[in-house]
Amino acid sequence: MALVTSTPAAPDGDVRRTRAVRAGRTGGRRIGSHIFLLVLVIYFITPLWWLTVASTKDTAGLFTGSGGPLWFDDSFSLFDNIAGLFQHQDGIYWRWLGNSFLYAISGGVGATILSVLAGYGFAKYRFRGRNAFFALLLGAVMVPMTALVIPTFVLLSEIGLINTIWAVILPSLLSPFGVYLMRVYTQEAIADELLDAARVDGAGELRTFFQVSLPLLRPAIVTVLLLSVVGTWNNFFLPLAVLSDPLLLPVTVGLNNWQALSNAGAGGEQVWNLIVTGAFISILPLIIAFLSLQKYWQGGLSLGSLK
Amino acid sequence: MATTIAPVTARPPSPTRKTRPDLKDRRRQRWGWLFVAPFAVVFLAFLILPLLYAFQMSLMTSTLATGTNFVWFDNYAKAFTDPIFLGGLLRVGRFALIMIPAQMLVALAAALVLDNLSTWASKFSRLLIFVPYAIPVVIGALMWGFLYSPRFGPAGDLFGLLGLDSPDFLAQSSIFASLVNIVTWQWAGYYMIIIYAALRGIDPGIYEAAVLDGASSLQIALRVKVPMIASSMVMVLIFALIGTLQFFTEPQVLRAVAQGAIPVSYTPNMYAYSLAFSYSQFNYASAISFALGIVVFIGSYFFLFLTRKQSGLK
Questions:
Q1: Average confidence (pLDDT) over B129-134
Q2: ipTM of predicted complex
Q3: What domains sit in chain B, N to C, each tagged with a CATH number?
């Protein structure tokens, strides 16, 4: 359980530094390690570098650019491509991007709120049926979410929600793993004595939750929020199945459709430069979010693994 | 996950709980349901209900000629003798055997190396290795599709430097390896972060004893560090296993580029999708989904059982 409490800020500092010193790497080893890391970084970054470079090319440049696939072309067409995204099919790309934001934020925030409440309920109250429900929930973590897509589709179509934004948002609220993480974290981060003290002081259950507990749960909340936003933003199978109106698609499904059309279609439907630039723009928000929220998720992602 | 129940329930009761549960206390415990209720509603509506409904649908057939009939487990008998479904299962099984070790090895090696370093370069590398996790799987697959493509990709140039012909990454014979590469690229960084965080949680004092005993850093890594993070490794393996068995997005996206190399029924999930949405066979598709779900569920439980010693849980 020790791991859970090791929020990112805690273990670093002196202990780490002495360890690095004590481990006393020889110069050669360190160079070897850095070369290994360099190779890994090149592998993981090359596709992104390619995407960055490719987003500045027009379609001809993509095929026969003067600098080759991994370097810039003579002509710089990023802004033309962005303008193209505004023109092609009346700028539907931006609509897709907006949809992705809508789904990811409403689904992610909703799932996080439910997870925090439920995790707290499971951790701090001994209500009837708690253990049975929690066991069921742990089993649910192992149910493959894609196995639910087809039955969810059929159910939603019976109540007429298919092809609406709710068909994506409502199923995204389900996050058994988020509840599990919140329960484990709550159990560690909030002592029962603290809650009892608040109650003795006359605070009700809700007030205790909002004013005493919630601030203590912040690192876990950010982690669960990131995980569920990423999950919804990345989701492909569900929107692919439940949405057919092009105006409702998230950017992932939309770009995939463009790609399929461009591969199958004639010259007029080939929008390679727009796909590439669209893909480039669509990955920026999450990369920025991850880079700016580093200190939260780096510790938080390990929450689930207990010793 | 069974892994994780243990520490939760093993927790010693706090002193305040030992006082007799009076009526007020019992009333208070009911607040638990209020906190859990919103989630419970979603859980019922989007997990239990679809599962029950899918199960019910999977027990029926529906044809234009005879209408809807209750056929008990006929669809399952059909599924488990359907060469397409079995072929798909076998294929994701093969993917699991290759892809999961590949991801784990990259993630573990990177995490162990990063754990030994504390330079700015290592911190920066850690971020860059993780970045693919922030990229939607569809975009990742699209990107690799471009990179693999003989028309757009750099492979021709790179192999040209060595005086070789570039292999066709999208041919039937190489598509398997190409998919393994995409998935490894996408997920290894995420697993690396989990393993790395677990390594950071180890008390460094333990290494001192090993150093005194004359252990090399490789020995420390393999004999001390890896066993100590076994439970994290098991968790990563379970994630990877569940993900691999439901393989869908990457082959579905690459299908458009790799003409002919990826059939519509390449994986069980793709098969269920095409049955439902191209052929409107919702009953049989539900049976396939359900059968896949059962296989995944049993597979992960079996795996947890096998590794109960390594993860230190019984």
A1: 90
A2: 0.81
A3: 32-72 (no CATH), 73-306 (1.10.3720.10)
